[in-house]
Amino acid sequence: MIVWNLAVVVAVVAAGAAVVYATAFLLHTPDTLRDAPPFLSGSVPTVHAVSRYHVRWYAITMIFLAFDMEMVFMYPWALVVGRMGASAVVEMFVFLAILIAGVTYAWREGALRWI
Fold first, then answer.
1. Domain map (residue ranges) of the chain
2. Where are the transmembrane segments (predicted)?
3. Low-confidence stretches of the chain (pLDDT beneath 50)
């Protein structure tokens, strides 16, 4: 029994080593960074990797995070709304009203204009 367990362990380690070496052989990477192709599907990058984003993307990101947090709060709410009753519904409508007020403000200020 011990010999059988040892044989299985050796076979698994050998198979793992074979997979690692086969992957390294089949997916040969360049030896130097100069020989490596660009990352973006082979096209040469037009801007530096640490270039700045336009400020409008920060506003879009904040709106996305607000709606993402809405979903984080609505999933647990959907589980307890039956037990809590009307008070849970009122609380969610207040939360959604605050969220819609924020989106309306962002829309009025022009944060949702793409061009």
1. 56-109
2. 6-27, 57-78, 84-107
3. 115
